[in-house]
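Person: Please work through this fold.
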Amino acid sequence: MNTTAAYGNADPEWSLKYAVQRVKGDGAQVVEGVIELLSPTWGDAAAVESIRDQIRPRARELNCVTGSGNLDLPGSSNWYVPDIAVVPAAQAKGATALLPADTLLIVEVTSESNGDTDRVVKRERYAEYNAPLYLVVDRQGQSVTLFSEPGTLGYTRVDGPHPFGTVLTLPEPFGLDLDTSDLS
C-alpha cells in the first residue's frame, strides 16, 4: 500500500484500516465499514482472562501465543481486534496484522453494545476468511457456542449454545475441556 498516494487517489479500504490503527486509548476496530471504539468492561475482561488462563498452557505446547492483535480481512472494510486469538508464534512475531485463517482459535466475548456483531457479523466473516475455530462467549445469553469447519456458506459445525457451567471440549489441536462456570 502506498502511504504517499494523493488524497483523491486513496483506496477507501486502506484509508479506513490505516486510520483505525491510529486510534488512541483502548483501540478500535472496523466492522462492515463502521469504526467501533473498544471499551471492554471488567466483566468482559474477567471472562477473557478465565479463558486465556485455561488455553494458555496448551497454546504454549503448540508454540502459539494468545493475544488480541489485529486481524485484517482483505477485500472488505473489516479490521477486527478479537478478545483472544491463538496464533503460531512464528506468524505473530513482527506482524502488524494477521488473517483469520492464520489463527487456530478466535474468541469473542459479547457485550451489550456489540453482542450481535460477535454473534452474527463476525461469525459470518470469520467463516468466510477461514478461521478454523470461533468461540462466542455470550455474556448476555449466559452461553458459549463453538463454531468450526468453515465453509462457503458459513460454519458447518456448531457446538452449542451451552449454558455457562457446561464443560466445552475444544477439538484438536487443543484437545482440552474448557470450564465455563465463571464466565458470567
Summary: The chain has a mean pLDDT of 88. The chain has one domain: 40-179. The longest helix spans residues 42-61.
